[in-house]
Amino acid sequence: MVRVLVSAAALVMAPGAAFAAAGPDGASLSVLWAVPFAGLLLSIAILPLAAPALWHHHYGKIALGWALAVIVPYAVLFGPGTAVVVFWHVMAAEYIPFLILIGALFTIAGGVYVKGNLHGSPKTNTALLAVGTGIASITGTTGAAMLLIRPVLRANDERVHNAHVVVFFIFLVANIGGSLTPLGDPPLFLGFLKGVDFFWPTVHLLAPMLLITATLLVAFYLLDSWFYHRDEAFKARFDPTPDSPLAIEGKANIVLLFGVVLAVLMSGIWKPGIAWDVLGTEIELQGLARDAILVGLAALSLKITPAHCREANAFSWGPILEVAKLFFGIFATIVPVIAMLRAGTDGAFAGIVSAVTRPDGTPDPTMYFWLTGALSSFLDNAPTYLVFFNTAGGDPAQLMGPLAGTLAAISAGAVFMGANTYIGNAPNFMVKAVAEESGVKMPSFFGYMLWSGVFLIPCFVLVTFVFFR
Question: Which residues have C-beta within 8 Å of that of residue 341, sequence separation ≥ 6?
């Protein structure tokens, strides 16, 4: 009976041979194939509020259930073997490398203990956010976020109102700061692999990045000053981590972080031309070597880092496990959504694709910025970047030359607007999880979006008028 129901649902969702062994044919897919992805997003948004106990204990099972809502109908329609080929490709080419990279950065950065404690005044907090934003394009947004989130939390642990500090930390350190190099954020790394010059984002995104960063830092300083000077309860509250001079322990992990940077850079430059076909997915030697090095660096960090460094950081595997489980569901359910976007005007999302083209046939940077950003807020920003990169022609020489404004809009939209939601970029969820483990009452999914709507959207409007018209 269950098989009959699943088969019927699958036939409604995709009448005809909508999927091929190489992947979904987006032009043939019904919009109903996007329901599991939407269901997962709504689960992430609603269940922590409506059923917190259920979500806390079973969020992994819920994510898996939504993933199976795509995988099972596919297997029924086209056979288990074809399903294995298609979804293995997503896991091997995207999810596993993604998880290895953020896992390595999380593990290594978690071994750097910034000993001592600063006083979380508005000036100090603003300086910490500025430093984190500045290093994010070197260490990656995940590395910078995991390196600094605990010192920021300790600096503000006696304050009654401190969630806003973490929110702006996500805006700047976990997202916008990673916009200047391919090492900063996955979308730019994918562009690098496609042929975009390493320093192209530095040249073309520096000005919009500085404008947004300066605007947000000023807004944060004013807001933090308001909370700081008007919170009488804070002034009388005991500080669990009294102020003390700063010192760094676990310094070897800083060297390992640069090893991560070099491994990622190597995989984009070294092209030995050696690859293996594994269940229809091409596994290239440089990617395999990169992942092996990253795993090795993470293992080395665990071995050589003094135990007290991780204990002092309150290091746990909870945040990375949460990201792993939820993003497994996101990567699986996103497959038909991305396929429909790639189908362009022949797919169910034809209106979105048509919106980025002017009547004369030229690309519209304003629409590329906003649509890439809007989708990156809810979809994974790396494949979204690729969709619009290809929609704009996919030729790196053209996109870096006559269409430089379009590529800048796509790049900025993918990186900047990943800050709009908790799921727009993986470090967002990790920072949220670490903050909540430390006792910070973070905004809900929609509550966070209210913060981003008030502070980020006006910045994006300003950047549009200055740079992307």
Answer: 26, 347, 349, 352, 353, 375, 384, 387
Burial of 147 (0-12, 13-18, 19+ CB in 10 A): buried
Q: And the tokens for 67?
A: 């993933």
DSSP 296-313: HHHHHHHHHS-HHHHHHT
Decide if 204 contacts 468 (C-beta within 8 A).
Answer: no
| Separation CA 175–CA 140 (nearest Å) | 9
Task: Determine the Cα angle at 133 with ends 150 and 248, to 5°.
Answer: 40
Provide the whole-model pTM.
0.76
Q: Which of 99, 92, 101 is nearest to 276 (CA)?
A: 92
80-84, 287-291, 293-297, 366-370: lowest mean pLDDT where? Answer: 80-84
**pLDDT tens digits for range 380-392:** 677 678 778 877 8
Residue 291's identity, in one-letter code, is D
Confidence category of residue 290, pLDDT binned at 50, 70, 90: very high
